## 1
Amino acid sequence: MPATPKPADDSPEPKPRLHGEMLSTSLLAFLKGWNAYGYQLSQKLAQAGLPESDSGTVYRTLRQLEKSGFVSSFWDTSENGPARRMYSLTKAGDLFLSGWIDVLQNYQSILQKALTSLDPGSATADVDAAS
Amino acid sequence: MPATPKPADDSPEPKPRLHGEMLSTSLLAFLKGWNAYGYQLSQKLAQAGLPESDSGTVYRTLRQLEKSGFVSSFWDTSENGPARRMYSLTKAGDLFLSGWIDVLQNYQSILQKALTSLDPGSATADVDAAS
DNA sequence: GTCGATAGATGCAGATTACACATAGCTGCA
DNA sequence: TGCAGCTATGTGTAATCTGCATCTATCGAC
């Protein structure tokens, strides 16, 4: 028995995973103010209450963010254990993050409006239609 | 021949476009409370202050949402002009949308925390000029 | 008949991603 | 010494997704 209340549907749909712009911007956010490396970021994401993310995707996303100029990296061998690729947020990354917040605010306000703009007395959309 | 004599930028970065889960959930939100068809939704998105979306992607996304059971559709031939495929939010879509709002709130709080947990005026990581 | 707006859809090349697996450094421990 | 396990970073691959161009079709205006 799974401890997690997994919906008992037999849909073969893959578990939702954090990816795309939400993953990219979460990584940028975690890098705001201090540096970090991939494994560390991957763990932070896992504890963040967001959908799980694939670590391979995290590493690839970080490389892509670097290619885009939003982060920069260097090898850190100052600690014990395997070398770590330390990432820092760049100015461009910081600007992108700020711009993203604006987009996000807009986006969220759209969702909120949709949820709250129910006309009084209007019956809930009778989405029976299937006919 | 390039009309612009500016060769330095050979990165033809495509304009950011609304896609993925942000597109899906925006569509679901627009369907909350009333029905709509693809062309209409595409126009609403264009006026919403979000990044532009490709209409082909909108149509494909709607079909996929239907496949996932989050919307249902039928042909509407009651009006003049080309037939419209009218979409309705299903119960499952409504639930998904609600769940998404929670994820989004979490996500946004992460970004906000990152932006505010620093002394204002503290310099960004000094990785400037790194391009 | 042609043009433009409406309405929906597809072909394709390139990008993205989930999943599995690979590589390597270090620690503990028998 | 051997080896399991954790840390840390990746890659191979098939499936999926996406941007852009293009296509079909209806209808009203001219």
## 2
Amino acid sequence: MLSKDLVAASSRPLVLTLLAAGESYGYELIRKVRELSGGRLEWTEGTLYPVLHRLEAEKIIASRWDAAAGTGRKRKYYQITATGRSALLEEQKNWQSINQILENLWTQNPPSI
Amino acid sequence: MLSKDLVAASSRPLVLTLLAAGESYGYELIRKVRELSGGRLEWTEGTLYPVLHRLEAEKIIASRWDAAAGTGRKRKYYQITATGRSALLEEQKNWQSINQILENLWTQNPPSI
DNA sequence: TGCCATACCTCGATTCTCGATGCATCGATT
DNA sequence: AATCGATGCATCGAGAATCGAGGTATGGCA
């Protein structure tokens, strides 16, 4: 079971990275993340939607309503903004700097029972 | 500036990894983390002590009071427990699985402005 | 017609965070 | 011997964050 903190820490970079690869919408993001993680990461809607709304309020992503191709069902498509792309670079840098610290320590002193 | 979430997510694995390398105490952990991160991670005492107390309540670490060598000043030394070592392995596995997802995505689709 | 998957959203009790604050000791400086 | 900064522990509580539960609506299908 993934810790709450780890899920929280990875949600922003994950959403931004996925949107950087192309626009998407809430339900699909949940599906994609479930697939990418092999089911380890199970976002609920109550988790994701507030994240999307917060990112949009920060102008890091933008949205448009559109009908799904094929069906007439409405979806809210999100795109990453220019601000969002630099935010993602920052997120990536931060993630990698912490990862580097941990990996260095683990290399020097491999955890074992 | 590192995000709150990232700081939170890394605090448990960091503390456990440092303690797995040898016992330590609060003030020293703060210093070590500051050095390891080149000043990017600045834990305050209000941040670290609750983490230590929670880990101790979960029996993942244990503590003993002792006088510092040289001075008579009292310190609370923390050690990782056997339970803690398996918890650390789990933390490591979880961290690396998320890191793998992100790195894969970033390799396939490198973030850029 | 009923039902499930899709698709969006908000609410609020519970939980968490961390800056502020407090206490005490040691060593060095004035 | 008084002061001060660094060391070292700890708690507190206003404010913030979380996310399961619940609400609404549509399309496709048997």
## 3
Amino acid sequence: MEYKPTIEDVAKLANVSIATVSRVINNQGGVRKVTEDRIVNAINELGYIRSAVARSMKRKETNTIGIIVPDITNPFFPHVVAGIEQKAREKGYYTILSSTNESPIIEEEIVKIFIERGVDGVIITTANESGDHIKLLQDQGIPIVAVDRAIKNFEVDTVLVDNVNGAYQAVRQLILQGHEKIAIICGPQSTTPGRERYLGYKKALEEYNIPLDESLVYQGDFMENSGYRGALHLFYSKVRPTAIFSSNNQMTIGCVKALTELDWKLGEEVSFIGFDDVEIATFIKPKLSVVSRPMTTIGEIAFQLVYDRIHFKENLPKREYLLTPELKIRESCHKI
Amino acid sequence: MEYKPTIEDVAKLANVSIATVSRVINNQGGVRKVTEDRIVNAINELGYIRSAVARSMKRKETNTIGIIVPDITNPFFPHVVAGIEQKAREKGYYTILSSTNESPIIEEEIVKIFIERGVDGVIITTANESGDHIKLLQDQGIPIVAVDRAIKNFEVDTVLVDNVNGAYQAVRQLILQGHEKIAIICGPQSTTPGRERYLGYKKALEEYNIPLDESLVYQGDFMENSGYRGALHLFYSKVRPTAIFSSNNQMTIGCVKALTELDWKLGEEVSFIGFDDVEIATFIKPKLSVVSRPMTTIGEIAFQLVYDRIHFKENLPKREYLLTPELKIRESCHKI
DNA sequence: TCGAAAAATCTAAACGTTTACATTTAGGAT
DNA sequence: ATCCTAAATGTAAACGTTTAGATTTTTCGA
């Protein structure tokens, strides 16, 4: 059956005009039951499937939303994507997904392709917060939603997690347990999450009148290795901390590796809380306490935002969601 | 700039016909340098971006390939997808991704949508190995590549991993270390991976003349919980095994949880090898030995297969890739 | 039974490309 | 200058829908 029947074939077989067929395909009503039946039969008989591209051509909408993530293999994103997809399918939308490997160049390329393909909206965790390359999208009037990382030079809807608050909660927890020498392994200060989590750390210390000790601040880059080096560094620093806060999942992993190798006893000699839940958290002994983000929910909200924007283009103010992360206390913190 | 310039606007501005513009857009040559320059200028001036949907309409190809996976949050798939994407982008293809949550119903729905959208090819890890719902695709002449799970009732290109061999290698390793009471936690025997991994287990035992002891065979379902229960079961069974082979990553995780709780000392009292690498493998002590699959490569090959099939539709025989997994010996095996 | 209003159906144009084929132009040989 | 050929450019149809507006059919009250 290599030949693809078109709406015209259906019309012919059912002895009606293509307009009528179109009406029943899109069930717009205004077609007599008997005619409809005839058409439906014809459709089944021919195995007709309507061409989405012809439809998009006429309608000037593709029911597709583009998703851009920096790294599809980072477990955070598949969960977000799952949330988006779920909601999207419910509304008859489909997603086209691309991963930039944190490269702004690739990101720009993808943006261009997405425009060519006529996506109705874009959900993006950008590799370049300046957002200049996003301008193209805005020029075309394509709704954008930024997830996890804000976009500077444009007004776009965003769904972020309250990084400051999450870090604050974590560090406060450590303080309340009596810790005073609390270290942080930071993310890059050029990114919003990196900066904000550091801010939360400082805020907690301030609030409890603990002076900030620069030697307990290690600059990482969100990669596993820097977590590893961070832990090493802290272990051998002049003031050995009694607690560590790690700014993201990958660094947490590196950190734990180092602790094990150093035989620096987690939960006994050093307390630990990491930002973002990680699979290993409940495996290692003691179980890791973490700041956890509602990943699927983030995706769901993001979709809702583009969806709204697609359907009510006008007079929607910029909307910003700020979800509160949850502190999951497990076993890696000890009282002092 | 809400108005989208079309090829016609460009033609008008450059004072040529749309045919000529089309020629330079697709750089087909046969256009004088001076005309080309004029056209390129016009394009830039207007910010013209060609409509992929109009193009697809005429060309009857979308340069899109659909990917269907059972569970996007299972770490195996994002890696495969990354491999596909990488190669696809190189060839000017884009991917549209959907996750079925292991539901054949959703899968069928997605297949339908993919056809509507005119994907040029499909890469699928099916939730229903019978493959009856795939028939639709085949009817439309859309190339299909099955990944990780074979499809029964149709001839499609496949890229699988040699499950038998992988399991065989793992179990042989255990045997060579002196183990004789080797248990297996099986996957569902209704799935190819489940069956084949069990086969590999049996093959190794046979080869070394170790009788199969049914009480050391635990039936799991690839879910974490069944790994957990499996370990428990084996611990309390009349013949306690000295080694365990687990048939997939999730069950490995459950298993390790149980071992920890039982205080059944990994690498001392019981050796362990699991199918598929897991993130925790190198965290826990001792580090887990695993059978590891080349996930990105799988994706790359899968794309190559659809690509070939798209471009040389005729006379390509069915191709089957069978990648050999690699045994990664770490620390969870001990000599006896 | 007739006519008017309402409901159903049809006609044809449009969406933005690509491409076969027709036409024009350029430029060298005579 | 003229002609011829090859190169450059143009014309128009087609791809498969949706949809406004025109037309036909049905329905129903008088």
